[in-house]
Design a protein that fits this description.
Blueprint lengths: L2 E2 L1 H14 L4 H16 L10 H10 L9 E5 L3 E5 L5 H19 L1 E10 L4 H10 L3 E7 L22 E5 L6 E5 L6 H9 L10 E2 L5 E2 L12 E2 L7 H19 L14 E9 L7 H16 L15 H13 L1 E2 L2 H14 L15
Parallel strand pairs: 3-4
Antiparallel strand pairs: 1-12, 2-3, 4-11, 5-6, 5-11, 6-7, 8-9, 8-10
Length: about 350
């Protein structure tokens, strides 16, 4: 398994995007976003997405160099058309609108339909937290990429519809970022693209509604589904995913899950709500309470064998420290897909050393 220094990987990925015509700045933003996901342990939203993005770009399903078009705005709200531009590029532009309005009016809501896949939502919450703001965010797949069946159902009806909330403290922000299914679709994709390896038990159902570890059930007919979050109370996870799908589709002017689209996701409808605590009880009040509560929870007595109580965002920071120093581990199959793509595009692949002694 190769381990790749993150600056080298980001430069390589950016060169792949530039090879298909993406402007250098857009290529760099997208590459850094994907590599940052790997750095934080979210390989499902990392560089395994590059061949998928390139395929969409080459087919014209993702468009190169498009602006984020404002369709409607008020002092606190902006609704945009992403024009099927690269998602990370359009999402950062959208976030700027939300942050600007929040700083002026206390609240800033920004939505966009028809964006490419925008990646890890926690990335945007981290940007907002650095500005002293709270961010609440969600996306859907515009009706495509239906992966989650309702409890008792045998056909998927929803995407994995994530929820992200970031809250600043006086040190590391709390970044809650999770899908409303038991696992993100991209984590299943990691197994599937790595020689169709089986996934852990408790993730998937086959087309008959039976438990399975076969990763191909999400990508090869007859299609199965991912279980909703919640275990025996899966209706809670499914219900949360349901309302987030409604909001992402309905507030953006895009679409929610429906019967008229295929089962393979292309991009996102996005909802960002930025909140400036200065417009409420004040930034000091928010920081005081978020910090003391975070410390109170982290100081909880630990069960035997537990080395630390982790808050949302802590696992990502731990992985960042490790991978930032030791390099990003990529399964050989995933690395070979990138180098094969590079060969086809006429891009030189970086020379790296394998490291089979470590596993992430």
């Amino acid at each position: 398994m190769p381990r790749i220094p993150h600056p080298l990987l980001a430069e390589f990925v950016a060169s792949l995007f530039k090879a298909v015509g993406v402007p250098p700045n857009d290529a760099s933003i997208t590459a850094r976003s994907l590599v940052d996901s790997n750095l934080r342990g979210h390989d499902s939203h990392g560089v395994i997405r590059v061949p998928q993005y390139v395929d969409f770009l080459e087919k014209g399903e993702y468009r190169i160099g498009v602006d984020l078009k404002i369709e409607h705005e008020s002092p606190t709200i902006v609704v945009c058309d992403g024009g099927w531009g690269l998602g990370q590029v359009q999402a950062r532009r959208l976030l700027e609108h939300a942050i600007d309005r929040a700083k002026k009016f206390g609240l800033g809501a920004a939505t966009a339909h028809s964006c490419g896949h925008i990646g890890r939502l926690g990335e945007y919450a981290e940007i907002a937290a650095d500005a002293g703001l709270i961010l609440e965010a969600t996306v859907n797949n515009g009706g495509a990429g239906q992966r989650v069946a309702p409890p008792g159902g045998t056909e998927p009806r929803l995407g994995t519809n994530p929820l992200c909330i970031g809250v600043p403290t006086d040190s590391n922000p709390v970044i809650l970022d999770f899908g409303t299914s038991v696992v993100a679709e991209g984590k299943v994709r990691v197994y599937y693209l790595n020689e169709k390896k089986p996934v852990p038990e408790g993730w998937l159902l086959d087309s008959n509604g039976n438990p399975t570890t076969d990763s191909s059930v999400l990508y090869e007919p007859p299609l199965g589904s991912i279980l909703p979050m919640g275990g025996a109370q899966a209706y809670k996870g499914f219900g949360l995913g349901l309302v987030l799908d409604m909001l992402a589709g309905g507030l953006s002017g895009g679409r929610s899950s429906n019967a008229d689209v295929n089962a393979f996701a292309k991009g996102n409808n996005v909802v960002f709500l930025a909140i400036d605590p200065a417009g409420f009880a004040g930034r000091d009040a928010l920081t005081r309470e978020s910090t003391q509560l975070a410390r109170f929870v982290a100081d909880c007595p630990r069960a035997p064998g537990v080395d630390a109580i982790l808050l949302p965002g802590d696992p990502e920071r731990r992985t960042l420290a490790d991978r930032g120093a030791a390099g990003i581990p990529l399964e050989t199959a995933h690395w070979e897909r990138l180098t094969s793509l590079a060969t086809r595009l006429g891009v030189a692949s970086p020379k790296i050393e394998r490291d089979d002694s470590r596993r992430s």
